[in-house]
Every structure is written in structure tokens, then in C-alpha cells.
Amino acid sequence: MAQNRCLEPMDKIVTTNMPQLKSSITPYRPKPKLIRSLSPKLENDKRNGLDLQLPEEQEAVTVKRVRWAPMFGDRNEATKPSTYISPLSSKQIRPDQDTPDELPYSRVQRILRECELNERNQSTYSLPMDYARQLVAMVCKVRTDNLIDLKLRLAPLLRHSKSRFFNRHLFNETGLIKAIVPSKSPLSFDDFNQTLRTDALWCKATDSAITDLGKGAVLFKCRPQDLREVTDKLRQCSYKITHTEVGHCPNKSLVDLTDRQMSRYQEFCKILLEDKDIVKIYDNVRAH
Fold first, then answer.
1. In this structure, what CATH number is given to the domain that contains residue 213?
2. Same domain, yes or no: 223 and 262
3. Rounded to whole angstroms, how far apart are CA atoms 71 and 173?
4. Which residue pairs, CB below 8 angstroms and at least 24 apart, start in 30-38?
5. Is 22 within the bounds of a domain?
6. Above pLDDT 70, what percent of the chain?
7. Is residue 224 part of a domain?
8. Contact of 178 with 172, CB cutoff 8 Å
9. CA 167/CA 140 separation, integer angstroms
10. Residues 239/180, Cβ–Cβ less than 8 Å
11. 37 forms bridges with which residues in the sheet?
């Protein structure tokens, strides 16, 4: 009977445990569509936005202009118009005919970007020198993209003044911070110097000095890698920072020059600073 039962059709087999199927009886409803509102009584913020009419004509594009001065030569309207050129540009930029003294803002931005790129291509060097047969030791801070060309330009001047490029290792690279003391009651020189040394010790400065007692100008020295940290701590002490740089300080005693020697040396430094690539000069000369 068991074998015959397996051969019976499916409709004769009684099933007792059938799962109950559940189906949703909610009919399908399409999503509402936006319809143009034609009612003029509705406020603008209650409308669906489709009844707004866009302007058919586009607004005129305004060009931002800045006042610009010629970089090379004087402007002469009778002969030729002014041209503008950046350090890296080989193409001259001519201003508009209606506004010859103005340049479009986009061109000004391009010139500024090219000037910034030109500055990035230049490198900073420390060029040691000996002046007048080792009378004075110097370090020239230069910024150039061709150091060999700079040395060739300075060679005639060095020969004439009996100087040369030579490093006697008389300078140390030092962080220099110029500041002004916060306004307080006037102190004597000794009390002022003691307060300055206490602040320098707390700010991790290696040395401090008073450069102008009347104006309250002081100078702090630190290691080059600590320049940012020392500057921030001095600001916390209410010092007004006027200048920061990584410079060179002599590690031995300063040199005293006669009036005649000082006059010649100052003339030599003046000619050096006329070169476009020389930024600053450090020496071991005692100021008069």
C-alpha cells in the first residue's frame, strides 16, 4: 500500500500544513507630478517654481579692471603705447585702446602668477667673503637662479677691493627676532636687561639684547629650528614682533675699523647691494 500511495496523483494527497501566503492589497498609485500653477493669488514661496519666467537676454558680463603702471620705460602716447611684461613672459601685453592705463583682472593675475613662479625658481645662498685681505669677514645672502653668473659679475669689484670668496667659518647660522617690549612703566637699563633675560630664558632664546632703549626695541637670538616656537612664545609674553629671519652672527670678537677704513668699507657694501641678486650683508664689524 505504501508503494501505491506514492503513485497516487497529487490532488488525492491531503496536505495539512500549508504556509499562508500574504499579499499586499494596497493598489499601485503613481507619484504626483508637478503641475504649473496658474493661480496669481499664491505667494512666490508657495508655488512650485515652474511658473517663473527666466530672462530671455543674458546679463552683460562685467570685466574687473585694476589700475596698473608700466613696468619698463616711461609712457609716451605720441610715440608708442605702453607695454607690460612679466619676468618669465616673452610676449608683451598691450592694454586696451579705450583704457590705456588699465589691465583686465585676468591678465594681472597671470602676471602675478608668473612673478611668483620666477621667485620659486630662484634659490637662496650664503656667499662668504673676505674684504681687504681678511680685514673684514662677510656673508652675503643672495637669491638667484644662476650663482656662477653672479660670481662672475662680482669678480672685478672683489679684485679692485682686494677681496675674495672665502669662508673662514667665523659665522654661525642663527635665528634673529626683532621685537618691541610691551608698553609698561619705564625701567632702568639694568632692570630692563634683567627682565629681557628672564623672558629669553622662558622662550628658549639663546641670547637677547637691547637695540634701542627709548623705543623699547630688542633683539632675540635662537637656533634656526626653534625660530617659530620662540616667536610664538614671545607673542604670548605680549612682545610685538617686527621682523624674523635666519641670519648669520659672528662667533668671535668684532673688528674695529678706523674712520677711513669704515668709509671705504661702507662704499664697498653699497656697491654690493646695488646688485639685484644680493639681499643682505652680514659682517663682523663693530658699529660706530
1. 3.30.70.980
2. no
3. 36
4. none
5. no
6. 60
7. yes
8. no
9. 11
10. yes
11. none
Give a yes or no: residue 51 inside a domain. Answer: no
- 188 and 240 inside one domain: yes
Residue 100 burial class via C-beta count within 10 angstroms: exposed 0-12, middle 13-18, buried 19 and up: middle
pLDDT at 97 over 50: yes
Contact status, residue 246 vs residue 176, Cβ threshold 8 Å: yes
Domain that holds residue 153: 122-170+252-283
Residues 151, 256, single domain; the answer is yes
* 10 in a structural domain: no
Q: What is the mean pLDDT of residues 139-154?
A: 94
Rg (CA), the chain: 40
Q: pLDDT-derived band of residue 108, with 50, 70 and 90 as boundaries?
A: confident
* Number of CB atoms found within 10 A of residue 248's CB: 23
Secondary structure (H, E, C), 166-227? CCCCCEEEEEEEEEECCCCCCCCHHHHHHHHHHHHHHCCCCEEEEEECCCCEEEEEECHHHH
Q: Inform me whether the pLDDT recorded for 156 exceeds 90.
A: yes
Q: Mean pLDDT of all residues in the chain?
A: 76
Q: What share of the chain is helix, strand, coil (3-state, %, to 5)?
A: 30, 25, 45
Residues 190 and 257 occupy one common structural domain:
no
Whether residues 224 and 126 fall in one domain: no
State whether residue 139 is helix, strand or coil: strand
Using CA atoms, how far residue 242 sits from 177, 180, 194, 210, 235, in Å, is 8, 7, 22, 14, 11
